[in-house]
Design brief:
Layout lengths: L32 E2 L18 E5 L2 H15 E2 L7 H20 L6 E12 L8 H6 L1 E3 L4 E13 L16 H4 E9 L8 H16 L3 E7 L3 H9 L3 E5 L2 H6 L5 E7 L4
Length: 263
């Protein structure tokens, strides 16, 4: 779903000025446009929440499925463009490699990164969106499942091209501060609480890491995302300077903060 958060700049949070997939540009013939991440008006089918699994992943098959979901969420490609499927795969490959690099701890400036996914059994999903489900499908060794929501939890001082949080202060900042990025839910399953559950799971992971202060960036005009984050306990800490948003050629963003209890 192009409805939730900000993806990472250069490493995964550059939603409005570049692609979500690690800073590459699209070819003019494909007419790639970054979606303004807003709530969908599609009537979402009811899903069996009890069948949903939300967990961290290091499985390459599942990371690939998550990368495909992010490309479908954050990039709007003209379906009539030449070689659209090849271009979409190219974007997915770039995001997949960047995601593996971050999760494996090879990205400089990041103490730790976790990819948290929400998945459902393929057998429980409607075949009306076969293209989406086949793109975001993986096998967990028991059954075929589909990544229907995803986010990154980044333990770091700041994210590239983003305003940085101020909490906590002192030497603990590298270990006790984290940012959410690349928050997305398949548009076919909006309004089923998937985004909220993803964020709740990220809080559990963050507490296990010793995180005390969690941040997320959201555009000023993204009312649906702001409601989601505030429902999850975030409050506004600061706003991106207008000049910075203009320089990066994107809508102005807010920085939201959440204090995590230590016990």
């Amino acid at each position: 779903m192009a409805f939730l958060c900000s993806p990472l700049p250069s490493c995964s949070v550059a939603i409005f000025s570049k692609s979500n997939t690690d800073g590459f540009r699209s070819s003019p013939s494909c007419r790639l446009r970054l979606r303004p991440i807003s709530a969908s008006h599609i009537l979402a089918p009811a899903i069996d929440i009890s069948a949903m699994v939300i967990s961290e992943t290091v499985s390459e098959d599942e990371l690939w499925a998550a990368a495909c979901l992010r490309v479908r969420t954050f990039n709007e490609l003209n379906p009539s463009s030449y070689n659209i499927q090849d271009h979409r795969r190219y974007l997915a490959e770039r995001e997949f490699e960047a995601l593996k690099e971050r999760v494996s701890g090879k990205r400089e400036g990041f103490t730790r990164v976790s990819c948290v996914n929400a998945t459902l059994p393929l057998s429980q999903l409607s075949t009306s969106s076969e293209d989406f489900f086949s793109a975001c499908k993986f096998s967990d060794g028991i059954e075929d499942r589909v990544v229907v929501g995803s986010l990154d939890l980044n333990q770091c001082r700041w994210l590239p091209d983003e305003i940085a949080g101020t909490k906590p202060e002192g030497f603990s900042v590298d270990f006790a501060r984290a940012y959410l990025s690349n928050v997305c839910v398949a548009k076919e399953l909006h309004r089923n609480g998937v985004g909220y559950k993803l964020i709740e799971k990220s809080k559990v992971v963050a507490r296990d890491w010793g995180i005390t202060d969690m941040y997320v960036h959201v555009t000023v005009i993204n009312e649906a995302a702001k409601r989601l984050y505030m429902k999850s306990g975030f409050v506004q800490e600061s706003a991106e300077p207008a000049w910075q948003a203009r320089y990066l050629n994107r809508p102005q963003r807010l920085l939201l903060w959440l204090c995590l209890p230590t016990s």
